[in-house]
Amino acid sequence: MLLPRTPQDQLANSRIAFQGEPGAFSEAAALKLLGRAITTIPRPTFDAAFRAVAEGAADALLAPIENSLAGSVLRVYDLLLESALLMVAEVILPIEHHLIAIPGTKLEEIRSVASHPMALAQCERFFSSHPHLKRVPAEDTAGSVREVLARGERAAAAIAGRRAAEHYRAAILLENVEDNAENFTRFVLLVPAAQAASLAAPGACKMSVALRLAHRPGSLLAALQPFAAEGVNLLKIESRPLHGRPWEYQFFLDIEADEPARIHAAVDSARASASDLRVLGLYAAARAAEARSHSE
After folding, report:
1. Quick check: is 185 catalytic?
2. What is the pTM of this model?
3. Can you give the pLDDT at residue 10?
4. Residue 187 among the catalytic residues
């Protein structure tokens, strides 16, 4: 008897877009989730990465959605609403940040440090202990390493992962400059809506939902009550302002239950209290503890 194929099985030889340069954490997460037979497609921005599938440049997209230290990747949430892509899997990657520079550079020569703003935010203690260092926001971690090497400027360094340092043949001056060793980023795998059903993981019991509330008192409470009534665990709630509608918000929910039927029943009930409810994906949950053990 053949077992149902997982998204990882079906996309093992696919083209996977990600935001960043070769060596980025997103590329490492894609390889971890889908294996080394995939072709990774780097894109300079999140907007460009989301367009890659519609443009025919990629079959799927892997995007970071939240970090355990720095919080949500807000631009990704906004793009999820504009996109027709759906989540079919997630992966959690342990994040280790290193201070990286031109080979032969000494720490005392460094005057500026570049990286993605999320990475810079995860290294507050490092910058507090080196207050003379200027923070330079960049499009992504690996790209900041590439730029440091390309400029040949010994006073400049970058914060990125070991994979980026190895890819660009740079030197690691300091290891593990992140604030906390328990640092993880959650990534979601996005595919065209027409393919999502065929890629659904067997027994998937986690769902992401976009919820827009009716503009009346008590609407949020009314929308959330069905989840409690059905025994569905509300893992996360994120709000984003609605563009052009001051003081109105779009809510994003991550929910989980012991069986998919409970989730579907709760979502159907919640629709009655929402002006709009959109399912962003049903997928198998990844665990931070498993991510750490699998990386060792």
Report:
1. yes
2. 0.87
3. 83
4. yes
